[in-house]
Each structure stands twice: as C-alpha cells, then as structure tokens.
Specification:
about 35% helix, alpha+beta, 4-stranded mixed β-sheet
Length: about 290
C-alpha cells in the first residue's frame, strides 16, 4: 500500500492500482512469475537461460511481447521495488531515466519477495556473470557450482577438451598442481542422476528431502518422454539439485597417490574414478563410476 493519499501515477509491471489510484494491488500471475524468476536466478541460471525457460513454458510476458528478453529479466532482478523499496527521482534535462532525489522509501510497494531473497539473487548473478560462457549455454551443466575437486578443494569447471565436454579441476586449467584428469560430463550427469533417482536412496533419506527427491525422479523420467519440455525440465532439475545436494567432491583419477606433471596431457574417464555426494542435512555417500 502507498502511505500517501496522493494519487499514484504508475506501478511496477507486476502490480496494479485500485480504481481510485490510491493503493497498489498484486497482479497474482505476474507476482508468481517474478518469484519464479528470482528462484531461477538463485539456482544459478543467467538471464538468457531464464528467458528461454519462460518462453518454453509459455509464460506470458508483462509487455505483450511474444518472447521474454534477457534485458527485462536483468532489470527485474535488479529492481528493489520487488521487496517494496521506492526511490524518488527527478527528471532533469538529459536524464531520461531520472536521477535519485532523496533517500529511498522502504515498504512503499507491496513486497513480492523479501530482502534476503533479493540479496541472494544478486550474489548468484555475480557468480553467474563471472563464469558465463556463450549466451544461452548456461544449462549445458546442470550442476552449477556444486562440484569441487577432492584433491585440492578447488572448483571443478565445465570445460571442452577435443570437442568433448568434461568436468575438470580449475587448478588444472590454470596450470596448478593437481591431477591432470577430467570426467566426461555426459557420464558424470548420468552417474549422479541415476544415484539420486535410485529407490534405495529415497528410503534412506531424511523426510525433508523425500519430496524434492520424488520431484527429481519425475523430472528425470520426463527428460526422455517429454522432448518438447526438455530444456525446461533440465532447468527444474538444476533447481532441485540445489535443494537436495550440498556438494559433489570429485575424485576424477580415483584414489590418487601422486599428482601428474603440470605439462602432462589431461586424461579423462580414468578407471576407478568416483565422487562423494553430500546431501542437505549432512548425509554423505560415495558414488563410483567404472566405465
């Protein structure tokens, strides 16, 4: 609600105005879409991937356009009006967007999200920008920043070696002292998802994880049966993984005793490689691939 009896001239695109133009009202469908956009951003998706997801799910835009634009997504994610803040502005000559005039006003708009959610999205956006490759390829790797190297603790990076997509330690790519080994991404994804979808894991998991694991199983099954929504399902899987998994520690060379020389060729899919999966709530499991 506005705290003033002065008539309001406009509202953010996810809010409307009462007939007397004295108060704001939620536009429920748009408010829900905005919450989804923040959820996707916190899950590690960039603005291009979010726009593609909304288009595939046929979510209506707020402007009447046929497709979502990544600049619109970016603008929404930066907009402090989402948690209720209003910044008065003056429109001097030469400043089409206006310049701040006075301190921001808190609780001016009805909040669609809380401040903690807004802040979490800003952190995720910066992390995504720091590792983003080509536009729209964010979802080639559904694991985001969950993967780490079991030998040195560095991040494990999605990379391409001789036209093969792999996961490899960041230290290796930067000529650091670590195992010169990698794990083919397709094999890694199949291994992890098969483990998480196994019925035995559901029986062993804490009650608070069971719902997310059941949702994950449904989305994994849908990847092969619902080809039209494949991209959207991979987005949903990426979000669910964030809810289920704390981290994936990757032993891409198995039980390593000696690191390979920094100039050695990067070898992939070494026999005996395995990973450790840590779930939310503290449960941890080894998962082995011997292909």
């Amino acid at each position: 609600m506005s705290k003033s009896s002065k008539k309001i001239s406009a509202a953010p695109s996810w809010l409307g105005l009462t007939p007397n133009r004295l108060s704001f009202v939620f536009l429920p469908d748009r408010a829900e879409t905005l919450r989804k956009i923040f959820q996707l951003a916190i899950g590690g998706l960039g603005s291009y991937a979010i726009a593609s997801y909304l288009d595939e799910e046929k979510v209506p835009t707020f402007t009447g356009s046929l497709n979502w634009d990544h600049t619109t997504i970016d603008s929404m994610l930066r907009n402090r009006a989402t948690y209720g803040e209003y910044q008065p502005k003056s429109f001097a000559a030469g400043h089409k967007r206006g310049i701040p005039s006075g301190p921001p006003v808190s609780s001016y708009y009805p909040a669609v999200i809380d401040k903690a959610t807004f802040d979490a999205a800003q952190v995720a956006r910066q992390q995504n920008l720091s590792r983003r490759g080509r536009k729209g390829n964010d979802l080639a790797n559904i694991f985001g920043d969950l993967c780490s190297c079991a030998y040195c603790g560095s991040k494990v990076i999605f990379h391409r070696i001789s036209n093969v997509q792999v996961l490899v330690c960041d230290q290796v790519l930067n000529q650091g002292a670590c195992s010169r080994s990698a794990w083919s991404y397709s094999d890694f994804e199949i291994t992890v998802l098969a483990f998480l979808a196994h019925p035995a894991l559901l029986q062993l998991s804490r009650s608070e994880l069971k719902g997310a694991l059941l949702d994950l199983v449904a989305e994994i099954k849908g990847l092969s049966s619902d080809r039209e929504r494949r991209y959207a399902r991979r987005v949903d899987i990426a979000i669910l993984l964030k809810r289920i998994v704390v981290g994936l520690a990757i032993h891409s060379a198995g039980n390593l005793s000696l690191t390979r020389h920094s100039s050695a060729q990067i070898r992939k899919d070494i026999a005996g490689r395995f990973l450790e999966i840590q779930l939310q709530g503290g449960q941890s499991y080894p998962c082995i691939s011997i292909r």
